[in-house]
Amino acid sequence: MTSPDDQHLAKASSTTPSADTHKPLRVVIGADTFSPDVNGAARFAERLAAGLVRRGHDVHIVAPAGSRKFGTWKETHEGQTMTAHRLFSLRWYPHDWLRFAMPWSMRRNARKILDRVKPDVVHLQSHIVVGRGLSIEAERRGIRMVATNHIMPDNILDFTVIPKRTQEWLVRTQWAAARRVFDRAFAVTTPTRKAADFLEQFTGLTGVHAISCGIEAGQYTPSFEPRKRNTILFVGRITSEKQIDVLLRALTKLPKELDAHVDVIGGGDQAKNLEQLTQQLGIGDRVRFLGKVSDDEVKQAYTNATVFAMPSIAELQSIATMEAMASGLPVVAADAMALPHLVHDQVNGYLFEPGNVDALAERLATVLSASPEEYRRMQDASLELVSAHDIERTLDTFEALYRGEQVVDPTTERHTATADRQESRD
């Protein structure tokens, strides 16, 4: 049994920078959600893992199995091969696809994996099941840990069957659990400064790093050709905090001469409800629910769309919004959480008051009726602003943290030339 003094010494030694800053690392990434799941946390973990493999590191994923089959094998993600340790999992039925590893066996699984792999660093992607088990066992072994938070209260509550009167208690419990897990880490990160401030406020943590999830912008293709029709695109989970119903109601208020349509890509528990809403609103012929589609189909949808809409109130960054910007799309987004970090009002699109249907309709109409010159200006601004979120900068920063180095958070708030001109006029 490890004594408290031994544990303290082990944690202290885990923060000592590695001597060889060029030596490939053996990295364990622990996640409660990972491919084939489709959500921001899973996409970040997948891109991070692939980027690390591409740089020569040995990456091991610890995540729930996506089916009844579990064990250790090789998986390929974004063209890179890594080792996956898939844990026995059960379906969480309030959600349409989410699966969880068993909490009571997680520490045993963590012990086996860590003793076999002997990683240089463990990167936790959550505090719930996988992250908690790995954090306890990694601390006992003096293994350096980095933790990234992707959780918002709305994300937790959306799939529970707990009565409303007890949800406040659940939120407090979750933040307390997050504090216990993240306290074991050498460094704690989250995608934006707004999200970092939010995490510090609700957990009492300090020194949380703001590190963008990053994006490989070159994988996306902007189109500067005139649009054949006005298509408003949404990509993401179809859940209540995304407020897709606000977008659908806004569509009914757009001028008929704009002939606007909405394409919704993604899956989620609200899909059937929203399909029924389109019929009630009389817009069934102008809305397509495309479900989960391939990466290539998503990229083509970005290229073909006219404007990207993100009405969500619970985004810690929004990878989908970054993908849209990398595709040269103007964006209309809710003025909530971290979205204003990406969408600069009147620069690469517009912000609107969360939940305000009329305001969203007005902003969408402004983009859809913009002159070719004004529309191109917003496209160029999106491309310029998203360049600050280059995945290589994200990988550089995480590599430094993995080696125990102190880092300066990358600057992702970039003013475009258009914004500078606007400020000078003001």
TrEMBL record:
<feature type="region of interest" description="Disordered">
    <location>
        <begin position="1"/>
        <end position="21"/>
    </location>
</feature>
<dbReference type="InterPro" id="IPR050194">
    <property type="entry name" value="Glycosyltransferase_grp1"/>
</dbReference>
<feature type="domain" description="Glycosyl transferase family 1">
    <location>
        <begin position="225"/>
        <end position="380"/>
    </location>
</feature>
<feature type="compositionally biased region" description="Basic and acidic residues">
    <location>
        <begin position="411"/>
        <end position="426"/>
    </location>
</feature>
<protein>
    <recommendedName>
        <fullName>D-inositol 3-phosphate glycosyltransferase</fullName>
    </recommendedName>
</protein>
<dbReference type="InterPro" id="IPR001296">
    <property type="entry name" value="Glyco_trans_1"/>
</dbReference>
<dbReference type="Pfam" id="PF00534">
    <property type="entry name" value="Glycos_transf_1"/>
</dbReference>
<keyword id="KW-0808">Transferase</keyword>
<dbReference type="InterPro" id="IPR028098">
    <property type="entry name" value="Glyco_trans_4-like_N"/>
</dbReference>
<feature type="region of interest" description="Disordered">
    <location>
        <begin position="407"/>
        <end position="426"/>
    </location>
</feature>
<feature type="domain" description="Glycosyltransferase subfamily 4-like N-terminal">
    <location>
        <begin position="38"/>
        <end position="216"/>
    </location>
</feature>
<keyword id="KW-0328">Glycosyltransferase</keyword>
<dbReference type="Pfam" id="PF13439">
    <property type="entry name" value="Glyco_transf_4"/>
</dbReference>
